[in-house]
Write a structure and sequence with these properties.
Layout: H1 9-36, H2 41-78, H3 83-108, H4 114-138
Bound molecules: fe (ii) ion (2 copies).
């Protein structure tokens, strides 16, 4: 996900929007499975939680990793005033990683818990806010 797509607002925003929308859809599926409690719901909830972990790792965290590889540093070189906001954005990336690590620990325990769902809700909201701020700081149009 590295490369020129990070450097253009429209392309970068469409990555963000895709990641957040698919994450929201998977989260809603998990909530539905747990609410309806149909046959085998615990198995389905686990499968959905695994898909959510995979989604946030391969789409959100991989995107964050690629931004930190070059993109952020190049932006700071262009405009040193971005150093502080980019440190804050990196902190958000660290929170994404921490949340997913926590969820993986919880997955080793028994069934899908309310606590785990809280983590999935948290990463969704954080990703949404993070992306808005990143678009604002890095593609300032005014
Ligand atoms: Fe980011
Ligand atoms: Fe981004």
């Amino acid at each position: 996900m590295s490369g020129p797509s990070l450097y253009k607002l429209d392309a970068h925003r469409s990555i963000h929007d895709g990641v957040v929308t698919e994450g929201r859809d998977l989260l809603n599926l998990l909530l539905k499975v747990r609410r309806e409690k149909l046959e085998n719901h615990e198995k389905h909830a686990r499968m959905t939680a695994e898909a959510l972990i995979d989604h946030w790792e391969t789409r959100l965290i991989a995107h964050a990793d690629s931004e930190e590889e070059n993109f952020y540093n190049e932006k700071i070189k262009e405009n040193p005033e971005l150093a502080t906001p980019l440190t804050m954005l990196k902190r958000d990336h660290d929170l994404f990683r921490t949340i997913i690590d926590e969820v993986k620990q919880l997955m080793k325990k028994d069934k899908i818990s309310d606590e785990m769902v809280d983590y999935f809700k948290a990463i969704y909201v954080l990703a949404k806010i993070h992306n808005q701020h990143e678009e604002g700081y890095l593609f300032d149009q005014h």
